[in-house]
Amino acid sequence: MIIAVACLSLIAAVLAFKLFTINAANKELTEKIVSSRNELLKTKKELEDLTKEHNRKFDPYSSETTKSLILSIDKDGNILSLNDYAVEFFGYDSAEELVGRNVIGLLVPPKDSRGQNMTNIIERIKSNPRLYVDHENENICKDGRKVWISWTNRIVYDKDGNLAEIRAVGFDITPRKELEEELRQMTVIDPVTGVLNRRQFLEDGAKEMKRAVRYNRDLSIILMTIDRFDALNSEHGSSFGDEAVRVAVTACQNSTRDSDYLGRLADIEFALLLPETPLNGARIVAERIRDSVMKSDLTVNGVTIAVTTSLSIAARIPSDGNVETVLLRAFNALRSSKDRQNHIAVAEAPAE
């Protein structure tokens, strides 16, 4: 019995030793596998870096001092290839995220910031390649950031003379475009209120008037001024004037559409041009503005001040040849509205 127990103990000890040896061997094998995998990943990364460096070396458009985007798309706008700098510039990790996908909605917005439809840009390049050898357009990065690129395009045809590929080289001109936009804003925007200045309002109004006449469409203009402005400004100081103008402009902006035009014609006279809007529709907008100003809390130096506005409305009639005639009727109506205060006057159409 004692001998049997001793044998069993010896067998258990032998098995335990073998298990320990096996576990140690497995651990060593696992460590070797992990080490090998890490070495493989390191080698792969080094190979990728060498490939990128090789591409950069033989890429005439990419260097430490010159960066260009190189893009190739097929006749339908699907991306065939692009260089490393383009991948990096647009914020992607690899070309695989882009190749095979269409540029529209990916690198080119369906509509740019100015509302231009970009969905048929590929067709325009195909139809008029000479007109689009060099062109500038807005592009988008992966994170949604808008950038401007100056592209030079080359059309590649197949053996049958059909368009097979569009090859483009682009340069980032976003800083230049931002400066141009800043300068443009300085020439068309009133610096105090942020709305259109008088000159730009009249230019835009002239364009909308021509369109309304050509297609026989409705067009209305609303004029607005702040009641008793001089007296209140003298009583409460310039802080009142700044706040009153802010309240009036905000009321107009909150009551109009993106397609409407808001301009500052004088210190406290503002004009709204409403395309595709008849007289009744303009009156609704004017009432909304008047009510919004009345309900606005205007407090200066701890004093709450009641502010009201006077407005006038004029709509285009068939005999109007330009926007100035509509504005003149609105100005004449505004005089009577100012006398009554917090009133909306509708300009009467002249007798035929």
Care to describe what's here?
The protein is of the alpha+beta class. The protein has 2 domains: 69-180, Beta-Lactamase; 189-346, 2-Layer Sandwich (Alpha-Beta Plaits), CATH 3.30.70. Helix content is 46%, strand content 21%. The strands form 3 sheets. It has a 5-stranded antiparallel sheet. It has a 5-stranded mixed sheet with strand order 7-8-6-11-12, with helices on both faces. A hairpin with a 2-residue loop joins strand 9 (298-300) and strand 10 (303-305). The chain is elongated. The N and C termini lie far apart (133 Å).
Give the arrangement of secondary structure elements.
Layout: H1 2-58, E1 69-73, E2 79-82, H2 84-89, H3 121-127, E3 134-140, E4 146-157, E5 163-172, H4 174-188, H5 198-215, E6 219-226, H6 229-236, H7 238-254, E7 261-264, E8 269-275, H8 279-295, E9 298-300, E10 303-305, E11 309-315, H9 323-340, E12 344-346
Parallel strand pairs: 11-12
Antiparallel strand pairs: 1-2, 1-5, 3-4, 4-5, 6-8, 6-11, 7-8, 9-10
Helix pairs in contact: 6-7, 7-8
Gyration radius, to the nearest Å? 35 Å
Any idea what the shape is?
elongated
Q: Could you tell me the mean pLDDT?
A: 83
Order of SSEs = HEEHHEEEHHEHHEEHEEEHE
Which structural class fits the helix and strand makeup?
A: alpha+beta
Q: For the record, what CATH class of the largest domain applies?
A: Alpha Beta
Number of helices: 9
Under CATH, the topology of the largest domain can be stated as Alpha-Beta Plaits
- CATH hierarchy: architecture of the largest domain: 2-Layer Sandwich
Number of DSSP strands? 12
Strand order of the largest sheet: 2-1-5-4-3
Q: Please tell me the total number of domains.
A: 2
Helical content stands at: 40-55%
Low-confidence stretches: 57-62
Largest sheet: 5 strands, antiparallel
Query: What is the distance, rounded to the nearest whole angstrom, between the alpha carbons of the first and last residues?
Result: 133 Å
Estimate the strand proportion.
15-25%
CATH superfamily of the largest domain: Reverse transcriptase/Diguanylate cyclase domain
